Amino acid sequence: MKKIKLEILGLSPSQSQTGSFALVLGEELGNRRLPIIIGVFEAQAIAVQIENIVPNRPMTHDLFKSFAEALNYTLKEIIISDLSEGIFYAKIVCGDDLREVEVDSRPSDAIAIGIRFGVPIYTYESILSEAGIVSSSLTEDDEDEESFVKEPLKTKGSFTEQLRDMPNDELQKLLEDALTKEDYEKAAKIRDELGKRN
Q1: SS3 label, residue 175
Q2: Quick one: how many helices (H) and strands (E) in the chain?
Q3: DSSP letter string over 101-116?
Q4: Residue 123, CB half-sphere, CA atoms under 13 Å: how many?
């Protein structure tokens, strides 16, 4: 079966399921999007890596990477391999010098691990045809999503407004505190504000 390369377009709170997030994958050379509903912890693990935030302690997906590297296993690719009754399935393709194996996984975990290794994400035409959404032109919602992709965790809330008024040294302390408490969403907002000033 022909594989189609995907890229991460966005990660946002799900409007259909409270406490979940929508991970939006897009066809690399096309206009179809594949939305997958994922849990808050997996969303956080993906966001932390996308935002290049280094946690004080390794997260589960970081542990998987360290474990694989210690055993001289490399990841080759992630495949969203199946869709059954509205549930997506994935495979992590990995191996060493002697063999290649496919490990079953939830797509959210596979992607969280895959982006840590910098490997491509694929799916099959049959899955994209069945569950993909065609994006023909930018609507108002799409424009919001596009700005969200550029700045995934930024919000217009009062916390972000408060950050604008703080001096750099205060922001740095706040960032260290957020990282200590493993509040990565808050850390990303603070880091973004510091980044704007540099």
Answers
A1: helix
A2: 8, 8
A3: EEEEE-HHHHHHHHHH
A4: 29
Which tokens sit at 63? 């542990």
- Tens digits of residue pLDDT in 16-71: 667 788 899 999 988 899 989 999 999 999 999 998 888 888 889 999 999 999 99
Cα-Cα-Cα-Cα dihedral sign, residues 172, 173, 174, 176: positive
Task: Name the pTM for this structure.
Answer: 0.71
How far apart are alpha carbons 124 and 152 in whole angstroms? 27
CB atoms inside a 10 Å sphere around CB 179:
18
Q: Please, which residues have CB within 8 angstroms of residue 115's CB and are 6 or more apart in sequence? A: 8, 46, 49, 50
As a whole number of angstroms, the distance between CA 17 and CA 58 comes to: 28
Straight-line distance from the first to the last Cα atom of the chain, in angstroms, rounded to the nearest whole number: 47
157-174 residue pLDDT tens: 467 778 888 888 888 888
Bridge partners of residue 21, in order along the sequence = 13, 38
Per-residue model confidence (pLDDT) at position 136: 52
Task: Kindly state the tokens that stand for 177.
Answer: 């505190």
**18-27, 80-89, 139-148, 166-175: which is most confident:** 80-89
DSSP 121: E
Residue reference for tokens 């919001």: 144
Beta bridge mates, 34: 25
